[in-house]
Amino acid sequence: MKKSIYIVWMLVSMFITGCIDDRGNYDYQPLDKVWPVTISGISAQERTIGDRVQISPTIKGTEGLTDLKYTWFLYTRGLAISQEDTLSHAKELDWVVNRESGNYYLMFEVRDTVRDLFTKRYVNFNISTSFSTGWYVLETGGIGSDMDMIRPDGTTVENLLTTYGSERMEGGPRKIVFKEDHRHEVENASGTVEVKKIDAFILLSERDIRVYDAQTMALLKRREDCFYEMPASINPLNRFVNGSADDQLNNDGQYYMFNSGNVGKFGYPVLGADGTNNYRVHPDAVSASQKAFLWDELSRSFLYLSLGSQMTYLSEASAEDRNYGPVSNTDKEMIRMLFRSQTKVQAPDWKARYLAYGLWKDSKGEYSIVDLYFDAGNYPIVGSYALPEGNRLSSTDIMVAHQTMPTIFFESNGNELWEHTVSSATALAERERKVYNFPVGEEIVCIRHLDISISAVEEKMDRLVVLTNSVDGWKLYGFDFIEGTVEFDMTVTPEKALIGQGKGKGGYVMRMDNYRDF
Questions:
Q1: How many helices and strands in the chain, by DSSP H and E?
Q2: pLDDT reported for residue 34
Q3: Residues 294, 295, 299, 305: what is their CA dihedral angle, to the nearest 10 degrees?
């Protein structure tokens, strides 16, 4: 046995020695001689969606080589390359950017398909969209509505809908909202249906609803695609989006809600407080995530709505409340309900409350402002202020509440901007004053207060924006508040405050900044 082990050990030793001492005359060649291919002429790119990209790379070392394959890839940083990342197999790239905005790598590969040798060159390729930041104006040219955009450089791009392949919407302009991660059904090449999350613009006109891809302006949904069952009448009065998990619509006085589990379509309208749809919700509302505070024009009552349940009447004043009158089955006609702001979450339930003003008229024709504090189904009125005789506020419905100060800005005589101080003062001079005169022939059609302070935006502002119309088209003005006040620098005239202008008659303005809407 020992002799056998010794023989095996000797054979292994001879084999190892042979491997170590092998001085065979092999013909090894450096890689740059076997595959001397280099790529240059490709640099980092900063592009926007819709750009045409043309790149002619410089390739050296392929003289006399056959069986070459060229491939251009665009892939997301940190993710493996897939077949969907292939842009082209041409030597020169000629491609129109159609990917979502983001940071990518562009890679060009030259490969010998027989020997499986290859050379790659990759560079940063960042895609942005021209729609992420700017001012959007929904306007009408007399036949339907379209959307214009004021770019950050002050230039106006008109008629985005028709420019990008769809037609004008039916009726005059109503509202624009932006929704992050709008759910939309897409049919793949295989015939399967996939639900994708797409950032979207939602547009309302007097008789139409549209949903557009906010990066490409591709049409996603027409009005009939926004419902599982089309309503008898399309009259969108308002739309509220409170993040990607909440979407609310007032169509012809009927109220709809859906949450994040939906595919971007509304079902049946919510039932009213009596368990039927015998209600007509006012166009104004205080909308929050999965809840809303509404006014029913038929019963003349405040209503509270929480997702998954029917509407309920708000409570009347309790013994602990100061009683400013009933809030259900009143004798009031709501003129406007103006959202102001929401509070920070509060103990013990860690929920926010919502502040608003209501301008209403009683059966005697007398107007008053009610200070509203919405807290679930609780009694909402915390103050009431009769309007002095001769006031101008009650003669218009074009107005906006300052988000933090007791002030309402409104239109008077068409081209005049006024302010009304919400207080118990009875002297009209202490309540109302004129702020600006706009050029003769212009008519104020929309006023908004934008208080933007989040870190994610490019431009912070505390600004009153005013949209006007004239025979020459629309104009958008912006007046910055002096910090911590409702005062303006009166040396800044409307002419100096002009943000941009365009053709047609504007109806609504929305601010976008780095894909945040205001």
A1: 3, 37
A2: 79
A3: 0
